[in-house]
Design goal:
heterodimer, A: 277 residues, mainly alpha, 0% strand, elongated, B: 268 residues
Chain lengths: 277, 268
């Protein structure tokens, strides 16, 4: 059997699950349509009075704004509510018992989370911006049809972007193993993503410096393994030694508790067995 | 009336003390709010750095629009958490029954649901931008201008409060909060950060007559700045425009009344 099969199965099952939320997707579509229109009017006003050629011409800005709105959900701006729920309830511990690589499993789930909602929003958005706007006589504001080469380049870039964005989201998910609550990370993540085209040289330089600081996709799994092994490290100090003693002689359940000490820190009605351990 | 105000003050007092129990969480949330709107402002600066001006409006002028609307929204947002969560917290669960049983208006109790202290982040950021804009612009301040600015903020708070009441009223029919209303709240803030005159004419009409966003931002601010409105409105209209926000709040409460009469509990 192909080693990747379970992971692709996870992606596909989760993806189809998330495709159910069509009403939410419609609301998102309307919101992003509004946002796109506002941004285009703002850029239109700036460009109307601009002197000399700009790094991006207006046609490119229009394409950027529409594609940005269509793909907005794919930016790492939030976390999966299901995962948050699992951490809060402690059910995340079951993931450790699955015969899968933990990072691979979480990455697969998150990849579906990152792409499913985006698919539902991007398709009507592209249809609207590319086909309907010219039909309404607003061809200046329409998303231009790409050339073959541009389309191939776009597909390659968007695939890599999906992987990178997923990796960043997984890191955010993993942070919840410490914080136990996704509230903080959910509030901070939107600050780091932006849908503005950055035409200015200095701003672009700042953004690329920031981008360089974001860990590359390849580096993330390694960082995560370090983080997980940090979690599994033996505890020091008097309380830590106590905990190590409790966790010595491990069965499956204790292995989970040892991997995620944060989960053991709270009394949980789901683990009455700990009282007798 | 006095009784209602005392009641609301008690609600807010309890809410503030409750939030300060989680001091780190409050500080981080407020910092997050500050950062979110500060980064937005950085985007604005980048655009002006490149283009110099926006259809004749200078950076400081647009910063003034930006500062006023963000302060306004931050205040309204802090007061309306109860209405924002109305669908999921009260209608879906049937908890609204409990509010109806108490001998105080339901709307008052909802306003007292939470005084969201974390909004201070956005308020602070808006105030800083506003202070900078005022220092950069050469506005001949007098009592009338200052009063109009305060009226603008008051009208704006009433307007956004009205939007939230409207969103909550819709929950009587839809149960869940409609995400589409975000277009008017957050989208409204985004829109009002820039002068209304740059937008398409249909858009301007909607945001003047249907949803009076322009009346609590653009028009009175033009009068405060003392510039001539490219749209050609007169000073009297500009000065009275913020009252549209209060009227909007009144209409929202009419819709709310309809909804409350229509409400049937989930029974759980």
């Amino acid at each position: 059997m192909n080693r990747l099969t379970p992971y692709t199965a996870v992606v596909s099952a989760r993806y189809r699950n998330l495709l159910q939320y069509r009403a939410a997707a419609f609301a998102g579509f309307v919101t992003q349509l509004f946002w796109g229109a506002v941004r285009l009017m703002i850029f239109g006003a700036f460009y109307a009075a601009a002197e000399g050629p700009q790094p991006m011409n207006m046609v490119e800005v229009v394409a950027y704004v529409w594609l940005g709105q269509a793909m907005l959900g794919m930016l790492p701006w939030n976390t999966d509510a299901d995962f948050k729920e699992q951490v809060a309830s402690g059910a995340v511990a079951y993931d450790l018992l699955r015969p899968l690589d933990l990072y691979g499993y979480w990455f697969a789930r998150t990849l579906a989370f990152r792409t499913a909602a985006t698919t539902l929003r991007a398709i009507p958005m592209v249809i609207f911006a590319m086909l309907l706007l010219p039909a309404f006589g607003l061809a200046d504001w329409a998303l231009p049809a790409p050339s073959g080469a541009a389309l191939i380049g776009f597909l390659a870039a968007i695939t890599a972007a999906a992987l990178l964005s997923t990796a960043i989201t997984v890191v955010a998910h993993i942070s919840m193993l410490w914080t136990l609550s996704g509230e903080g990370v959910d509030r901070i993540m939107p600050s780091f993503v932006s849908d503005d085209p950055v035409g200015d040289g200095r701003a672009a330089a700042a953004v690329s410096r920031l981008a360089a600081a974001v860990p590359r996709v390849a580096a993330v799994p390694r960082a995560v393994r370090c983080a997980v092994s940090h979690l599994q490290r033996q505890h020091s100090g008097r309380r830590g030694r106590e905990r190590n003693r409790v966790h010595a002689g491990l069965d499956g359940r204790d292995r989970v508790v040892r991997a995620f000490p944060a989960l053991a820190r709270r009394p949980s009605p789901r683990r009455p067995g700990r009282l007798t351990a | 009336m006095t009784d209602s105000i005392t009641m609301l003050a008690r609600y807010f007092g309890v809410s503030i003390r409750a939030q300060l129990q989680y001091r780190a969480s409050f500080l981080l949330s407020a910092a997050g709010q500050f950062l979110n709107s500060a980064i937005e402002f950085l985007g604005l600066w980048a655009l002006f750095d490149r283009f110099g001006h926006l259809a004749g409006w200078s950076f400081a002028e647009v910063a003034f629009f930006y500062g006023v609307i963000n302060c306004t929204f931050a205040i309204a947002d802090a007061l309306t958490t109860g209405f924002d969560r109305f669908g999921s917290h009260y209608v879906k669960t049937g908890d609204f029954d409990r509010l109806l049983l108490r001998p105080r208006p339901a709307a008052l109790q909802l306003a007292g649901h939470e005084f969201a202290l974390r909004r201070i982040g956005r308020l602070l950021q808006g105030l800083i931008v506003l202070a900078w804009a005022i220092s950069a612009l050469d506005i001949p301040w007098d009592a009338a201008r200052a009063a109009l600015l305060l009226l603008t903020v008051a009208g704006g708070v009433a307007f956004f409060f009205g939007l939230m009441v409207l969103q909550a009223s819709l929950c009587f029919w839809t149960t869940e909060s409609l995400e589409v209303m975000n277009v008017l709240t957050y989208g409204g803030v985004e829109t009002a950060q820039y002068p209304l005159s740059i937008y398409h004419v249909a858009f301007r009409r909607i945001f003047t007559f249907a949803v009076p966003l322009g009346c609590i931002g653009y028009f009175p601010i033009v009068a405060v700045l003392g510039v001539d409105d490219p749209l050609g409105t007169g000073r009297v209209f500009q000065a009275l425009a913020p009252l549209a926000g209060v009227a909007f709040l009144g209409l929202s409460f009419v819709a709310w009344g309809f909804g409350v009469r229509r409400y049937t509990s989930t029974g759980s």
